[in-house]
Amino acid sequence: MDSCINIWENIKLFFTSKIVNEYIGLIMQFILLSILFYFMFKILKDNKGTKFIAVVSIFVIFCGITFAFSGFDTYILLLIIVMIALLIFTMFHSEIKRSLLNSNSKKTKGGLTVSGVELIIDETIRAVQNMSKKDIGALIVLSNENLPEGIVQSGTIVNATISSQMIEAVFYPKAPLHDGAMIIEGNKIYAAGCFLPLAQNENLPKDLGSRHRAAIGITTVASVTAIVVSEETGIISIVKNGVVKKRYADAADLKNALSDYYWSDLTAEGKR
User: Which of 1, 35, 194, 204 is surrounded by the fewest CB atoms within 10 Å?
Assistant: First the structure.
């Protein structure tokens, strides 16, 4: 009996000793850092951020050597690494959402999946570029259900699946809805032929037509993004926060704007 008690006391003494606690702390830190580095590097690699991997690795190794020979507390190093991870996650927040959804094959609300969103983006870009080549005017508003109800009611509820053919059909010059704005909400063309408030700023360039003024007007009163195709020149513009963010937008600019809408604003959740 005494021997059992002695064994138990020795076991308790072993696990409560300072050296063992330090080793347990180091092991836990190692596991935590390994998980953190794995996800951080995976996200960077998946999104072509290999240069960041090299920079972060060099910085962490340098900090590790410095802290090892200077006697600083390892928790300070852990805090620095966590701050670096938070910085990277902030820079790649949209890509992180895409990566998380990619690892889950289930559909999100409204039936949107990662491949579904990518298809919508490709179809929208194709339609906008086709209309640009043909000098067909267009105004597309990317909404988060935050438009004034009167604007939606001024048009026609379409509630159609997004495709290049559908978008081009709406803006075909002889189509009844081509003069108004198209409202996209999530994975649907929700309405078309909508009338938007025109910007009254007299300092706007004279070459900006009514579609551009409407895009500036609606992005001033609501947190939405507008894509404009000029009927006169075929120039594509991206408007946000009451400002023309990009004139002469190309496929890459359109992809960035649409990706920002789906991955940042909607977080890939379907709407109406």
Answer: 1
